[in-house]
Amino acid sequence: MDSCQLLCEFQIEPHVPKNFIWPKEYLEDAHEELQAPIVDLDGYLKGNNEATKNASKLINEACLNHGFFQVINHGIDMNLIAKAYDEMDTIFKLPLDRKMSVYKTHGSMWGYSGAHAHRFSSKLPWKETFSFPYYVNNALKPVVTNYFKSTLGDDFEQAGVTFEKYCKAMKELGMMLTELLAISLGVKDPLHFRELFEEGCSIMRCNNYPCCKQPSLVLGTGPHCDPTSITLLHQDQVGGLQVFVDNKWHTVRPLPNALVVNIGDTFMALSNGRYKSCLHRAVVNKHKERRSLAFFLCPKDDKVSPGVESMALNDIFGVETIVINVLNVMWMKEMMKIFNTVEACRGGCVSRFDSRSLAHVPHAPTARVNGRWARREKSVLDKSSHVAVAD
User: 286-307: buried (b, 16+ CB within 10 Å) or exposed (e) per residue?
Assistant: First the structure.
């Protein structure tokens, strides 16, 4: 039976199918809650300098440690978030054959995926996803709305309108967070990173984690680090997001009206390695399905960024600039292939690229550290783990 069909028919399956079962070493329980700061953005949004300073300090502390924090009073309409969940539910409740009509094809980042069965045959994640792009084009055409109409049909136009508004709001919040991140890094110009992201094509992903009769055998999303820049996640109140810090898993407690923000590999490179892109995963339970909305802020694919001009960074790394050609389209595709099997890091928070694997990839990210250009290298745990961006 097809893995997508198995997932969709989970309620009538007496046991977890073999290709969804994960090795025991990946299934260690989390017993502690992650100490992730709650950053109140109200003062920053009102232009209060002291509040901005306090917010950037909290962000700095979190990103130096593990790269995760939560934001409240972020300005996103909670009714809009609720509508996005309603529209997402409608999509995932469609008959399997309808969902398969927009199935994510090999090499594509967009469309429906059931357990990532189009990519893997074992250690499958217990989830289904629907992904689509968001960017602002010169013609000001509604990119998301058009995508929904062209893939799901005219009856999903309103769903497209809702997610167009949702993505626009997330993009605006993401841009503001780049300013706070710049301030937190001690960059002279708070708008330092803004140009990188203004014209970028971001990724929106809806995640649905069904109940599982044997949750101790599966993972909703395997251990991974996000290869993108900044992730803005809204998770429902069921919970399931976990972060690997100090060689153990920690839960991220869902907070009403809060968004979880985490640093991805690309922004870690932009910070010259100072900020952490941390290993995380999602677990499921037997009583209630879990849902989340993940927005990945991405830079324009052909942008070249001057490095962080910060006295603090210069003192630490002994460099004046780094130059990174981020997320070139060809490199992005190659990176996604490489991230199909990535090792979790026991000794630290960061997943790293294999320099041998990246040797043939044009414009792979590099950083000038101590006068040398060095590619980031991948660190080995025990066995490879499938990476599925978004939680």
Answer: eeebbbbbbbbbbbbbebebeb
Please give the DSSP secondary-structure letter assigned to residue 105.
P
- Alpha helix segments (H runs only) across the chain: 3-8, 42-45, 49-65, 78-92, 96-100, 143-152, 157-184, 194-198, 265-270, 311-317, 329-338, 355-358
Please state, in angstroms and rounded to a whole number, the distance separating the CA atoms of residues 153 and 161: 13
Domain ranges of the chain: 3-375
Q: How far apart are the first and last CA of the chain?
A: 26
Phi-psi sector, 327: left (phi>0), alpha (psi -120 to 50), beta: left
Report pLDDT digits (tens) over 331-381.
444 444 444 333 333 333 333 333 323 333 333 333 333 332 233 323 323
CATH superfamily of this structure's domain 3-375 = B-lactam Antibiotic, Isopenicillin N Synthase; Chain (2.60.120.330)
Where the chain has pLDDT below 50, the residues are: 1, 3, 118, 309-388
Which position among 205, 281, 290, 368 bears the catalytic label? 290
Is residue 150 within 8 A of residue 141, CB to CB? The reply is no
- Residue pair 218/21 in contact by the 8 Å Cβ criterion: yes
pLDDT at residue 373 in the model: 26
CA 189 to chain centroid, in Å, comes to 26
User: Beta strands 38-40 and 68-72: pairing type?
Assistant: parallel
Q: Is 162 in a helix, a strand, or coil?
A: helix
Q: How much is the pLDDT for 5?
A: 56
Q: Give Cβ neighbours of residue 226 (< 8 Å, ≥ 6 apart).
A: 262, 264, 265, 277, 296, 389, 390
Instruction: Please answer whether residues 370 and 271 qualify as being in contact, where contact means their C-beta atoms are separated by less than 8 angstroms.
Output: no
Residue whose tokens read 């299934």: 27
SS (H, E, C) 49-88: HHHHHHHHHHHHHHHHHCCEEEEECCCCCHHHHHHHHHHH
The answer to whether 290 is a known catalytic residue is: yes
- Can you tell me whether residue 305 is helix, strand or coil? strand
Q: Say how far apart CA 343 and CA 59 lie, in whole Å.
A: 27
How many alpha carbons fall within 13 Å on the CB side of residue 155?
Answer: 5
- Helix axis angle, 78-92 relative to 157-184, nearest 10°? 130
Phi-psi region of 259 (alpha: psi -120 to 50; beta: other; left: phi over 0): beta
